[in-house]
Amino acid sequence: MAQIAAERRDPLRLPELNLPAAVEVTGDDAAGLTDASVVVSAVPTQHLRETWTRLSPWLEAGVPVVSVSKGIEIDTLLRPTQVIAAATGDDPAAPSRPLGALSGPTIAAELARHLPATMVAASRDDALCAAVQSLFGTDWLRIYRNRDLVGVEIAGAVKNVIALAAGMLDGLQAGYNAKSALLARGLAEIARLGSALGAAVETFFGVAGVGDLAVTCFSPQGRNRRCGERLGCGEPLQEVLGSMVAVVEGVPTTRAVRRLAEARGVDMPITQAVHAILFEGLRPADAIGQLMRRRPKSEGFF
Amino acid sequence: MAQIAAERRDPLRLPELNLPAAVEVTGDDAAGLTDASVVVSAVPTQHLRETWTRLSPWLEAGVPVVSVSKGIEIDTLLRPTQVIAAATGDDPAAPSRPLGALSGPTIAAELARHLPATMVAASRDDALCAAVQSLFGTDWLRIYRNRDLVGVEIAGAVKNVIALAAGMLDGLQAGYNAKSALLARGLAEIARLGSALGAAVETFFGVAGVGDLAVTCFSPQGRNRRCGERLGCGEPLQEVLGSMVAVVEGVPTTRAVRRLAEARGVDMPITQAVHAILFEGLRPADAIGQLMRRRPKSEGFF
User: Fold this and answer.
1) ipTM field
2) Does residue B255 surpass a pLDDT of 60?
3) Quick one: CA torsion of B110, B112, B117, B122, rounded to 10 degrees?
4) Known catalytic residue: A159?
């Protein structure tokens, strides 16, 4: 943090972006949160609870929080905005403050160059959706509103699991046909889980659904895809994770999604295969063989 | 044809594939069709009618035809299997012979190397779906059945229009965020048109829907994407088309889809923009600006 404050950029993760003058860098919880009109929470999912438990005393009543985390908390199977609600003493099922998510296909290095992009501002609070739209929308960043917070958060979490699989296909040099089939079957299993949790199916057709899934599977820059690629090349998981600067959200999220799917009785064969590769010693090439040799059938969705 | 017969491969389009011994190459219509148990029709969409009008006398009653064409006939706005029905003296709305489509994310050069891939066998005739599944399915090519022939053919046609736009973004170096947003918004407009024509929305989630769209937008090899890329770099359309060996289905299909959307009152802003670029002199960079600057709104689908 001291280095970012001194250099006015993050030399490790995004060296090409110089922070605008209006951005203040601080490690002081009270200074960061006092008088905030909107708080954006950008914290790895498995650290959300401890972070917001610590910040909670400084978060004023009624101030909206917008999450950009993409994952599911392993122990509780809660979505990021639900964890924030719980950690700040709110009821996750009926929070007293406006909570939302901002999500979409947004590789940071491209945003830093102001290349055109889209996102979704999701909240059950229409005023928060509109506020996020006007705070962050520019002529190169188009922001859509969506009331389906569950769908947007589920899509953002599970796409990282599918991206690990996409990277494994890259590591195995399986080609674009295979990766595109994975994207389609992965989208179907994300939508199945989302539906079981009360999300609207249309959300998965949207920029925070299939849009984010596509960028995560096809951009060479994605962390989860890159981690999967190294696994596909035969590197052990601990070695890959040990050498990466950034958090690979897909790895813990695979555990959480698999448990969530089991608890809800949702069939998620790709997630199961990724889980078996990450934690049970299955080889990626054998997983493809198993998926390809399932009994020929109708294409099923829900 | 003589060259393919002599060399047992197509040196122009797929030099890496040697034809299996069981494949006979012939230009004799009668020899090609007599005693066929299934006919696979691989003809550019705008040439389907003349080809099948010529072949019709040799096509025996009740013999199924499976189409792999991806487009819409400009003058009639009919789908490939409808054109085949009409040209062989059948009723396009209630054909007497089994008709089907075989479609999916299948870059030919990858199939030639037996890399893993998926397709959909679509027909209202269940026996034809099952026959195609067992004729073409292998342990590296997984074939799903789908009764939604309309959806599979519409998805295959319109994805080429979206791929032209994806290529233009590549030519403009707009990045992965933009192309992934295009994929999502393109899928929504394909699904809107399909729904208006009676297709099942689930089909667009499938391998012949979003799967084929993804491979067409992201594989460097796709003809339509490549054509769009050269347009995005500023080359005139006639020059691009004149220099390409293969048919770029997306160009005539853009005319057809735009007319179909107008006739059915379906909002297809990306197709309209591609039409304006191809045929009305709009510059690709200006089209992006127009799409990005539309009024901020909810993400709409149907």
Assistant:
1) 0.94
2) yes
3) 120
4) yes
